[in-house]
Amino acid sequence: MSDREVARVIERHSAFLAGRAGGARAALKFVNLTGMDLGGQDLSDADLTGAKLFSASLVEAKLVSASLFGADLRIANMTRADMNKCDLRGACLRGAILTGSNMVEADLRDGTLMRHRPGESDELVTFDEEPLATELTCAIAKGADLTNARVQNGFVMQTDLTDAVLRGSSFSGANLANAIMTGCDLSGADFSRANLSGVQLQGAVLSGVSFAGADLSKAVLIGAIIDQTDFDGAKLEGTVRARRIEETGQSLQHLVSEHGVWVDSAAKRGRRADLSALDLSALDLRSVNLSAALMNCVTLFDADLEVAALAMADLSLSDLRRAKLARSDLRGVNLDRATLTGADMKGALLGPMLIRSDKQQTWPASLFRARLANVDLSGADLTGARLREASLIGANLSDAKLTGADLSGADLTDANLEGADLEGALLTGAKGLTRH
Hints:
It is a single chain. The chain is mostly loops. The protein starts with a helix and ends in a 73-residue tail after the last strand. It has helices at residues 3-18, 252-264; strands at 114-115, 123-124, 126-127, 130-131, 243-244, 278-279, 353-355, 361-363.
């Protein structure tokens, strides 16, 4: 179809959606729309069964409940597209860009599509002469929302799902070999019998997930939240998981002591502590000095870090649930994608760190996409902190200093902001702000 013909179909479809006279549901079955720009168009409920949308642009398009059964969406750009309840059975999304897309309750199960031609036998629709199968191989789906999506037996190999939401989704029997799922929320998802070999799950939430009979060989689980997770019958050979300090043959006391020398001598003596991927749960680390330490993917569940010095430390993708961090020095810290649910951070310092240089530069604390649900941050200093897309649901921010903080896209639902100073704070797209 020509651009003009497609524009006419969309115009009539808009009238159909609005209930106006002359409207008609868009029927684009098996139509070749290769490379076409459909960005921002509302194609909700449209019939795109078997349509060829190879390399098409569907950026911010609305495809709610649309039928894309057996569609060719290879290397299509579907950034921030709304595909809520979309029928994608048998669709090929190989190499597609799905960053920030809404695929809640989308159906990505297997599907077989036959094309009927009068006077001829039915023809099996294939991609590059291969049988039809739902495929998300090598796609980019960072931050996509696949809550309650159905992807049973689908191919999702080598796909980048960083920060994606997969709560309650079904991936049973799917092939996700070597997929990147860093920071994903998989709460309550079903991955039974799935191939997850080599998958990266650093900092992912795996609470209530079923991995029964799944292949997790060589999967990386450091920093992941494993709570009521079912590994019954799962293949776990070579799986990378957090280790206790005693398993490494090192002494925590010695590491901390050497780090103190390293800090005091401006890195001329001693040795910088690297506690990355260690399990330090429930340890007493009060008043410890681990400023600028490497603690990526560390597990500090229920640990006591009150009045600790953690300025400029790298705690990204770490498990800090219920950690005690009251009055701790976290200036310039990296807590990106860390989970701090229920942590005590009363009076903590999370402002910028002054970098000694001729220009007197500052380094802000970074909490990008950090999970801070029900955290006590009362009286904390979060001046200039980067809290973009952080979850602060039910957090206590009373009397907190948030001047100049970046809260764009953050979720502040039920957060206590009484007495909080938000002067100059960036609140674009922030959710749950009912007052202040």
